[in-house]
Write a structure and sequence with these properties.
Length: 356
């Protein structure tokens, strides 16, 4: 069974973020700026033993991999940014690829979306910073040539011998079926790709017809407006329209109720959610997440994963280090290694249940 955690590389400065957010900006600036917005709201979430690391430092990347491996995570899903030939935040992964260190397995998720101003000055909300474009065949060839370096690495995670590639929002592709066909043609010498459609923030549901091999649904289903409407009159959400929207942590995992997707579906769980460091009072907060509650939900997701065919048993954790969303497994100052230890307990128990 693969237990893969999304990995955000935005913990080192780049010229674009310097220009958009100020010199030296990294995700740490957003995370450390979090402030409580209602009674009982825990902010800021601050890193524990790994500290405010810089992902240009190889020792930091090695420490992350060591922690993940010893707590049952089998690989990282690095977010990959390719916007019409322009790459962003590529340095940490490029250095992992070139140095061959750490030896920890990995795969990629193409974050095929434009970059917009999501936080900061409210008067500039929605401003387009960098547009995702799809220039055509030459761009796809160049994109695949870059990806191929990763696909050929022995650390790259494979399903049925095929490198796995996640696509964040396939519905944004001008021709999703054509994208699948062309990338599979380019990957023929590799034995093909295993393409996974991520559907959480999209109405796109043609993944099976378009040729994707699997899908990933909601980490916190039901999500968004539906969930907030359901609880808006409860005590937990009184006054929600004057502050961040709030929801209770769902400790059960019921794919029939939550996923409602065709084809092969990989379960996905999140330890927590609180994006108010980025969005302030426009954000959304999971008000009662704890390692124990996360462990209970993970237990159900692991059981669902075990029901898949052996070669397709993949569980996705969202995420390893999304500190600006309060959505991370890494040690923090509130619970220490609590999130990781909960994962380790449940993964160990699931492994024992599956042992012959």
């Amino acid at each position: 069974m693969e237990v893969l955690a999304h990995y955000l590389p935005q913990f080192h400065p780049i010229p674009e973020n310097d220009a958009w957010w100020g010199p030296g900006f990294t995700e740490w600036r957003s995370a450390a700026a979090g402030r409580p917005l209602f009674r009982g709201h825990v902010q800021p979430h601050l890193p524990g033993e790994l500290g405010f690391y810089d992902l240009r430092v190889a020792e930091s990347r090695a420490a992350q991999a060591a922690l993940a491996q010893t707590h049952g995570i089998t690989g990282f899903i690095y977010w990959h940014y390719w916007l019409g030939g322009k790459r962003l935040l590529e340095r940490p992964f490029d250095e992992v690829l070139e140095s061959k260190e750490p030896s920890f397995p990995f795969c990629l998720a193409w974050a095929n979306h434009s970059w917009r101003r999501r936080w900061g000055d409210p008067s500039r909300r929605g401003e387009l910073l960098l547009e995702q474009t799809y220039p055509g065949r030459e761009d796809e060839l160049a994109h695949f040539a870059y990806l191929r370096q990763a696909f050929e690495d022995p650390r790259y995670v494979r399903i049925a011998g095929k490198p796995i590639l996640f696509v964040f929002s396939p519905g944004l592709l001008p021709d999703p079926a054509g994208f699948v066909e062309r990338f599979q043609e380019m990957a023929a010498s590799l034995g093909g790709l295993y393409l996974v459609a991520m559907l959480e923030r999209s109405d796109y549901r043609n993944h099976v017809a378009d040729g994707f091999d699997a899908a990933v649904g909601h980490a916190f289903p039901p999500s968004g407006a539906d969930l907030i409407t359901r609880v808006r009159d409860s005590a937990i959400n009184r006054g929600w329209h004057h502050g961040p929207k709030r929801f209770a942590f769902p400790t059960t995992y019921d794919p029939a109720a939550f996923e409602r997707l065709d084809g092969t579906v990989f379960p996905v769980v999140a330890p927590n959610w609180d994006d108010t460091p980025r969005l302030g009072r426009r954000g959304t907060v999971c008000v009662d997440a704890t390692p124990e509650r996360f462990g209970a939900r993970l237990r159900g997701a692991l059981a669902q994963t075990a029901s898949l065919p052996p070669e397709q048993q993949v569980l996705v954790i969202k995420s390893w280090n999304e500190w600006g969303e309060g959505n991370y497994l890494e040690p923090d100052t509130e619970f220490g290694r609590g999130w990781l230890e909960a994962a380790r307990r449940e993964i160990d128990a699931a492994t024992r249940r599956e042992a012959p």
